Amino acid sequence: MLIIKIWTAYVLDLIFGDPQNIIHPVQIIGKLISFGEKILLKEKYKFFAGIILNLTVLSVTYGVNYIIFRSAKNSGIFAIIEIYLMYTIFSVNSLAREGNRVYGILKEGNIEKARKDLSYLVSRDTGTMDEKMIIRSTMETISENTVDGIVAPMFYMFIGGLPLGMTYKAINTLDSMVGYKNEKYMEFGKFSAKVDDVANFIPARITGIFIIIASFILHYDYKYSFKIFFRDRKNHSSPNSAHAEASVAGALGVQFGGRVSYFGKETEKPTIGDKIKDFELEDIKKNIKIMYVTSFLSLVIFSLIFGIISLI
């Protein structure tokens, strides 16, 4: 039954994408984090205050969704609510939509609008980016978010249903809101950042492997994808971010990383992949295809694995 619900949620996401006119559960999680931050960030011992925030948000998220999960076993209404919430966890449609939007704007030649739209997707400075840097940043975002927007939440839903899937989204949201390495959040967000690293450890590596298989299916350079994955998957300050990027970079013959600006400060990130060719506009489309095939592969393989386990 769980597998059927996850498939249903996945298909709903493909069709509708993130709900636009109904409050999103991640927004509620975000409001809970902001409320807790206002209270706890004032504390003297910021690291321990950050732990309290993290554990409180995760406990509330798991508890509320566990009640819905249990109620869904005896109630059709709660079963519908459960599937709806599972559907909101996926980001396949929204990732493709945002990538296609930047692609379309660049195809029209509107660099300024492309910079502005990209600024909604990434935390880096986009104001002075040229076309190739916009393409690179879009692809890095799609590749990295294939892990935390698709494969990781799917992985945790197969393990623990809606409660664990939504708790993963809370982990991810905490990291995105307080996990910054700056003066304000260095201590307060350290625990949340580490929890996110642990939660993504297995899914990031699985995603890298699935992208190689997706590259084979799509007739991209899967052999080079395999090579770059094992060579460059640790070329990042995060222990998880480079795995998916390395596989994509190898498959498409491009090089991620290099010069980038965050909050007005330029940084030279480690490179991922070899610069076999310059970034081309169509690479965004290819990246989106990889993301789609990777998501479906994950769904099929997880269904087979967890289906067999449930029969043992």
UniProtKB/TrEMBL annotation:
<feature type="transmembrane region" description="Helical">
    <location>
        <begin position="290"/>
        <end position="311"/>
    </location>
</feature>
<feature type="transmembrane region" description="Helical">
    <location>
        <begin position="149"/>
        <end position="171"/>
    </location>
</feature>
<dbReference type="GO" id="GO:0005886">
    <property type="term" value="C:plasma membrane"/>
</dbReference>
<feature type="transmembrane region" description="Helical">
    <location>
        <begin position="47"/>
        <end position="69"/>
    </location>
</feature>
<dbReference type="GO" id="GO:0015420">
    <property type="term" value="F:ABC-type vitamin B12 transporter activity"/>
</dbReference>
<dbReference type="GO" id="GO:0016874">
    <property type="term" value="F:ligase activity"/>
</dbReference>
<dbReference type="InterPro" id="IPR004485">
    <property type="entry name" value="Cobalamin_biosynth_CobD/CbiB"/>
</dbReference>
<feature type="transmembrane region" description="Helical">
    <location>
        <begin position="75"/>
        <end position="96"/>
    </location>
</feature>
<keyword id="KW-0472">Membrane</keyword>
<keyword id="KW-1133">Transmembrane helix</keyword>
<keyword id="KW-1003">Cell membrane</keyword>
<keyword id="KW-0169">Cobalamin biosynthesis</keyword>
<protein>
    <recommendedName>
        <fullName>Cobalamin biosynthesis protein CobD</fullName>
    </recommendedName>
</protein>
<comment type="pathway">
    <text>Cofactor biosynthesis; adenosylcobalamin biosynthesis.</text>
</comment>
<dbReference type="GO" id="GO:0009236">
    <property type="term" value="P:cobalamin biosynthetic process"/>
</dbReference>
<keyword id="KW-0812">Transmembrane</keyword>
<comment type="function">
    <text>Converts cobyric acid to cobinamide by the addition of aminopropanol on the F carboxylic group.</text>
</comment>
<dbReference type="Pfam" id="PF03186">
    <property type="entry name" value="CobD_Cbib"/>
</dbReference>
<feature type="transmembrane region" description="Helical">
    <location>
        <begin position="202"/>
        <end position="222"/>
    </location>
</feature>
<dbReference type="GO" id="GO:0048472">
    <property type="term" value="F:threonine-phosphate decarboxylase activity"/>
</dbReference>
<comment type="similarity">
    <text>Belongs to the CobD/CbiB family.</text>
</comment>
<keyword id="KW-0436">Ligase</keyword>
